[in-house]
Amino acid sequence: MSMILRLRRFAVGPVIALALAATDVHATAQRTFVASTGLDTNACSLMQPCRSFNAALAQANVGGEVIVLDSAGYGEFTVTKSVTITAPVGVYAGISVPGGTNGVTVDAPGAIVVLRGLTIVGLSLSITDGIHFSQGAELHVERCEMRSLLNGIYADLTGGAMLYLKDSMVTSNFQGAWLHGNGHASFDHVRLSFNFEFSIYLDNMSDAALSNIEIDNSQNVLVSSDANATTVAISRSRMASSCGEGLFVRATNVVVSAIATDTQFAGDNRGCSGAAVGVQDFGAATARVWLVRDTFAGNQGALYTVGPGAVAYLDGSLFISNPSTTSTSFGIYATGGPIYTRQNNTIRGTTISPNFLPYSAQ
Amino acid sequence: MRLARRPAPIVVAAAAALFAVGAGATSPRTFVASYGNDGNPCSRVAPCRSFAPALAQTADRGEIVVLDSAGYGGVTIAQSVTVTAPAGVYAGSSTGVIIDATGIDVVLRGLVINGGGFSGIDFVRGATLLVERCEISGMKSLGLAAHSADAGAEVIVRDTTIEGNGEGMYANAGTTVVFSGVQVVRNAGYGLLFQGGPFYLRDTLVAENGGVGVSVEGFTTANVLSMTIDRSRIFANHSVGVAMRLSTSHSLSLVISDTDIARNNSTLVSPAGGVLIDSYPFPGNGGVVLTRTTIDGNGGFGVSADRDGYPSFAILDDCVVSGNQDTGMRTASGPTIYTRNNNIFHHNGGGDQSGNIVVLGAL
């Protein structure tokens, strides 16, 4: 018997077994693959990739991975279990959203879902979400782009769910990210541009940490709650050229706090009314902001408080050219609660209302 | 009867198939590749070879995706579109990109525009332009010409290098410019020339340009505006690091924070080296605010506010002004420099300060 024949005989058994496993509809793999050359009737293996995310997801283990092999569109999909979907750097993985359904739907109670490297694009300004998270324990979104959608991301975080958004772009949507419910969110290195309504709407959230956020030409960040106490920390970020508040903190019946450190508010509300930061007690509530080492430059107005429970603290911040050209207000304007200062702020070209109270360091 | 009707869906399907390959059809996502052919439909399986034919096949607000490394030619864009070369794929163009239609939104990502053409990206008309991960070098005129005729146009540039062009970038009055992670280096003339703003620069390097690093000339707008430079370096430009020239009825201000302005004007082509506020040839009443910023080792004055009795100003707050060849901060003929009395001055050749210096009260 020749060597070739012996090798052949040796190889035949495993090949048949693999083929059987691949065609077994119940078998799943820890790692499945999609490619432009794939077929959805394949096993979604590296050698026989599938063509769409939905097919590869069905073949992936709980806690498994779907990997994109080359640049192409891979279609909308729904996640119902813990899974990681990765398009490596250098591979374009597109999802076109024509309308009627969402780009990515996560409806996976208790699951941990990771999305990496996806480009989700609405066609004809479709009234659907790029990523729609209705149930799950954690959603991690990294290196993704959401464009031309109703909401770039919509997440119902009720019950303490977590959303991590990192190294991503949210552009030209009606709203950038709308996060709802008493869960948690972390944004880092996220760029939100040209969104029509709010770039980030934190709606009855428990807490959120936003760092290295860049927002341009949108209505920036709304923190609003009437049911859950909310704490938001913003650091090293920039909010530029909005028509609407750069940061708007609004509370009804609960305590809502936001602290912004090392953050720039520039060119907000030019040609519009309002101010870069708005703080509003909407009724029986406490709304607070701390503005620490922030820069306010060239906004229509810099800061206002409305309602007795609305308070602001200024510490080492710079206010320059926030003239508030509307006749009824000031660049820094306490119509509600007081504005406390550490007396280490620099203010010029910014009219101020008299309700400034110094407070001392602890 | 039933039998007679059955073929109808097939006819529809056949018509749809014809439509898909018809000359007038466009697709929301088209592809280009080194192995493509411009006679192709620019689909994933049959990509085109260059950008211009791919654009013609791309739907409004659609996307052109680059599949592998090659040159893909120049293109004139007159519709909303995104052009994406993923990281790791080189997508070259020597003639550059022209954007020229009112109201359009264009995204350029991952392009290498190098040599030959007039301007790298010429934004003639359009509402918004987003440039990411691009390299623009060796162009005869401007790396990026942002002179959109659209009112309120906005240009966002991120993670991009503008190097070795005639001038780095020009923006006309009224076009908002937003930078993040941009390098503007070794251009023959200006690094950045902004004719009125507003602009917001962040994490940006402006270095070794042949003229002024960042020049702001508010000649043509009559707005209350404020610009920002944050977390950046303005380094070793042949002339002044940052020059702001004001004009009548304008109230321009420029806030520079957490930034190093160093080693500019080393051959003394200008009396001012680090930062210059000047009202020539018109009177102006704006100024520059420097906070947590270092002005070090520049030729001439570190910070200079000058000219003719007009109320321009500079504010220094928590800055270091050191090792400049002439006076550290100096004002003459009208402007005031305000300090928070929390700055450090040392080793400035012409003394630490001169002129009308006022200590600001704290609020």
Notes on the protein architecture:
By secondary structure, chain A is mostly beta strands. Chain A is 7% helix and 48% strand. Chain A has 2 helices and 34 strands. Chain A has helices at residues 3-23, 53-58, and strands at residues 29-34, 60-68, 72-73, 77-79, 83-86, 93-97, 104-107, 112-116, 118-122, 129-135, 138-142, 145-147, 151-156, 162-171, 175-180, 184-193, 200-203, 207-216, 221-225, 230-235, 238-240, 247-251, 255-261, 264-266, 277-281, 286-292, 295-297, 303-306, 310-315, 318-320, 332-334, 339-341, 346-348, 356-358. In chain A, the strands form 2 sheets. Chain A has a 23-stranded parallel β-sheet that branches. Chain A is elongated. Chain B is 7% helix and 45% strand. In chain B, strand 1 (27-32), helix 3 (51-56) and strand 2 form a beta-alpha-beta unit. Chain B has 363 residues and is mainly β. Mean pLDDT of chain B is 88; it is low at 1-23. Chain B has a 24-stranded parallel β-sheet that branches. A 12-stranded parallel β-sheet of chain B has the order 4-7-10-13-15-17-20-23-26-29-32-35.
